[in-house]
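queue> pop job 88
queue> type: inverse folding (structure -> sequence)
queue> payload:
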C-alpha cells in the first residue's frame, strides 16, 4: 500500500527519540536507494535501516507537492530521510515534513563531496563551517521529535590528523545530537569525482574507533568500504553500527543474512526465489500505476551475482526490461532462465 500522507498532519511522532536500531543500515545513494530498491531490500531483511536518496531542502520546499519526494511504501519501515541543505529555517521545515510523513529518522548530509552541491553549501563542504552545521542541527532538533542524525567524513582535502574529526564531532555534539554516521575517508573537494572520493582517499577505520572511545555516550556508525557481514561483525565490536553502500546494492542477497547474523532473528527468506515471489505484487502494482519495468528491475540485477544463470538474468532484464511494452512476464521469463540454468548445473553434477 502506498504511504497515505493525508492522515499524518495531526498525528504524534511515529516513534520516540532514540528508538531506531542502527546496528545495520544501507547508505543513501543517489539514483539507487529509490523506493523500488528499498521495497526489494525489505523483502530480504526486516531489521535493516533504509535511507532515502538525499533530498535537498529546495526540492522539498519549492511548490506545494513534496509528496513526490517523500512518499514511500509502508513496508519500508524503519526508514530514514536524508536531507541536503544548510539553511536552518529550511531544514527545520523539512524535518517537520519528515515527521509528518512518518519517517523514523531524519539525517543531515555533511559527507557528499560533489562539486555540484558545494555552491549551495550542501554536503562535505559543511565540515569547514561547524557553526553552520550546529545551527542547522539545532533547528532540526527543535522542529521534530523523531531522531536527528548526521552523516559526515573524517576530514577535508589534506586534513590528516584525527583531531579534525574529533573536534568536529565534539563541537556538533554540543547541540544535543547523539548519532554520528562517519564515512571513514576524507572528502577531496576539488579534483576528484564522487566515485573517486569513494575509492581513492584511504579508509581510516581506526579514527572512527577512536571516536567511540573518546565519546562513549554518542552513537557512532561506521560507513565506507564494508563488504561482508563478517567484517560488519568485527566492526561492531568497536562501534555501534555499520552502514553498507555499494555492496548492498550490487549484491543485495547479502541482506538476507542480516536478521539472523546481526540481530539473532530467523532469516526472512530462504532463497532468492522467495524474495522475488514476495516482490512480485509490488512490481505489478507499480506497473499498473504506469511505472516502466526497467525502472524497477534495474535495482535487482545483482540478485543472482555469482550464481548459475546470474549473467543471463542480468542480460535478459537489461535487454528487455527497457521496452515500452515490457510487463511482468519479462521478469518471470528471466527467473525461469535462472531456474533452467540451475537445473542444468545439477544434472551435470
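queue> result:
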Amino acid at each position: 500500500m502506498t504511504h497515505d500522507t493525508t492522515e499524518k498532519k495531526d498525528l504524534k511522532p511515529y516513534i520516540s527519540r532514540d528508538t531506531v536500531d542502527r546496528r545495520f543500515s544501507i547508505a543513501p545513494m543517489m539514483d539507487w536507494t529509490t523506493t523500488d530498491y528499498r521495497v526489494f531490500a525489505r523483502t530480504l531483511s526486516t531489521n535493516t535501516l533504509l535511507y532515502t536518496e538525499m533530498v535537498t531542502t529546495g526540492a522539498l520546499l519549492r511548490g506545494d507537492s513534496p509528496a513526490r519526494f517523500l512518499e514511500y511504501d509502508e513496508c519500508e519501515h524503519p526508514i530514514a530521510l536524508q536531507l541536503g541543505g544548510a539553511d536552518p529555517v529550511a531544514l527545520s521545515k523539512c524535518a517537520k515534513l519528515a515527521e509528518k510523513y512518518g519517517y523514523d529518522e531524519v539525517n543531515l548530509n555533511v559527507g557528499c563531496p560533489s562539486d555540484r552541491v558545494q555552491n549551495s553549501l550542501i554536503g562535505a563542504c559543511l565540515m569547514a563551517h561547524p557553526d553552520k552545521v550546529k545551527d542547522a542541527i539545532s533547528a532540526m532538533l527543535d522542529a521534530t521529535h523523531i531522531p536527528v542524525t548526521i552523516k559526515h567524513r573524517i576530514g577535508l582535502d589534506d586534513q590528516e590528523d584525527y583531531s579534525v574529526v574529533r573536534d568536529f564531532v565534539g563541537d556538533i555534539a554540543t547541540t544535543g545530537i547523539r548519532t554520528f554516521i562517519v564515512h571513514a575517508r576524507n572528502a577531496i573537494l576539488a579534483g576528484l569525482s564522487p566515485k573517486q572520493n569513494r575509492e581513492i582517499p584511504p579508509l581510516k577505520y581506526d579514527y572512527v574507533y577512536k571516536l567511540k572511545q573518546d565519546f562513549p555516550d554518542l552513537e557512532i556508525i561506521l560507513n565506507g568500504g564494508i563488504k561482508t557481514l563478517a567484517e560488519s561483525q568485527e566492526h561492531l565490536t568497536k562501534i555501534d553500527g555499520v552502514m553498507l553502500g555499494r555492496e548492498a546494492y550490487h549484491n543485495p542477497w547479502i541482506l538476507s543474512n542480516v536478521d539472523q547474523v546481526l540481530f539473532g532473528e530467523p532469516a526472512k527468506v530462504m532463497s532468492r526465489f522467495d524474495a522475488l515471489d514476495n516482490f512480485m505484487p509490488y512490481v505489478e502494482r507499480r506497473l499498473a500505476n504506469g511505472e516502466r519495468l526497467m525502472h524497477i528491475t534495474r535495482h535487482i540485477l545483482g540478485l543472482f551475482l555469482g550464481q548459475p544463470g546470474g549473467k543471463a538474468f542480468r542480460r535478459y532484464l537489461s535487454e528487455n526490461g527497457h521496452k515500452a511494452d515490457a510487463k511482468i512476464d519479462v521478469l518471470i521469463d528471466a527467473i525461469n532462465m535462472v531456474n533452467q540454468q540451475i537445473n542444468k548445473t545439477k544434472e551435470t553434477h
